Amino acid sequence: MWTSAVTPKLLSESVIAVPPLARDADRKISTPENTKIIRAIEQGGVSTLLYGGNAVFYHMRLAEYADALGMLATVAGPQTWIVPSVGPTYGLMMDHADVLKDFDFPTAMVLPQKEIADESGIATGIRLFVERYGKPIVLYLKHDRWLAPSIVEALVRDGLVSWIKYAVVRENPSVDPYLSEILSVVPANIVVSGIGEQPAIIHLRDFGVGGFTSGCVCVSPTRSMAMLRAIHAQDYALAESIRKSFEPLENLRNAIQPIRVLHQAVAAAGIAETGPMQPLLGELNSQQKDAIGRAVRDLIALDIGDH
Q: For the chain, which ranges sit under pLDDT 50?
């Protein structure tokens, strides 16, 4: 596992995969199946894996947190950078800090808590977590105006932030005042587009952010990496054609539920048995699984056609 410091160069060199976490029939974390997922992603040229929402870290028991981190650290290849998540509640964040200190992960992402949290309290919680953990965090801006740009600027200025995952969904991603305001106060190369392939071209080309995260990269890593390279090469026509190839699967994620659809898509691709969903997330019905299977097969067929 990669344990050196995080740099903007590192953020730009690889699509940041956001994989599911495979579990067995008893809902226990499965080392063999997660190993298959990580190897498939690595073999596709991806070197950064972020375990957050798609891995349902929100609902992970504290009793299994250390085992999950140990499994990820052990299974990852020597050049693979793993980013685990903490929270979303303050109590879990602080308990997670004590566990994380026993590992060499360069950073961890703070999962966003929205319902009863306010921005000054979130900032205080992040400061206390970093003080306890001893390393800067990944700041996840998932909700519009979740943190004021001035608060984000202060957290970055004070060395508390490793990088920022920006994942506020817009009907038109090219019009995003919040992202523009964030980028006016922090370096663009530490901000990453956090909503998959669909807005990535606009975020990288027009806003100048450093990279992008993806769930569907777990199904087709070589294709997603080709899109990243095309954007860097300013071959936007090629990047757009690749983006559109991910659209059917992403549309299903948006229409049904992003986490559950990706969980099933990785299994449908034959990469690994991802197992049952964590409660409190429901299971998919047969019609939904069939639709996901068709979208996955079509995506994989494009990969085969590229060779």
A: none
CB burial of residue 61 (10 Å; 0-12, 13-18, 19+): exposed
Measured distance CA(219)–CA(233) in Å, rounded: 24
Q: What are the E-state strand segments in the chain?
A: 16-17, 48-50, 81-83, 85-86, 108-110, 137-141, 161-166, 191-193, 211-214
The predicted pLDDT at position 84 comes to: 98
Grouping H, G, I as helix, E, B as strand and the rest as coil, residue 21 is: coil
Beta strands 161-166; 81-83: pairing state: unpaired
Q: What are phi and psi of 107, to 5 degrees?
A: -160, 170
DSSP 30-73: -HHHHHHHHHHHHHTT--EEE-STTTTGGG--HHHHHHHHHHHH
pLDDT tens for residues 75-101? 999 999 999 999 999 999 999 999 999
Instruction: Please state at what angle helix 286-306 crosses helix 221-232, rounded to 10 degrees.
Output: 60
Complete domains list, the chain, with CATH: 8-243 (3.20.20.70)
The conformation of residue 189, written as its DSSP 8-state character, comes to G
d(CA 148, CA 119) in angstroms, rounded, equals: 7
Residue 209: name the closest of 10, 11, 16, 7 by CA. 11
Distance in angstroms between the alpha carbons of the first and the last residue of the chain: 30
The greatest distance separating any two alpha carbons of the chain, rounded to the nearest whole angstrom, comes to 52
- Rounded CA gap, 52 and 87, in Å? 10
In angstroms, the Cα distances linking 135 to 5, 80, 127, 271 are 10, 19, 11, 33
Residue 182 token pair: 């964030």
Which SS3 state, helix, strand or coil, does residue 202 take?
helix
- Tokens read off for 256: 């049904």
Per DSSP, the chain holds a count of helices (H) and strands (E) of 12, 9
Which of the 8 DSSP states describes residue 196? -
pLDDT score for 248: 98
Query: What pTM was computed for the model?
Result: 0.97
d(CA 155, CA 135): 13
Task: State how far Cα 81 lies from the chain centre.
Answer: 12
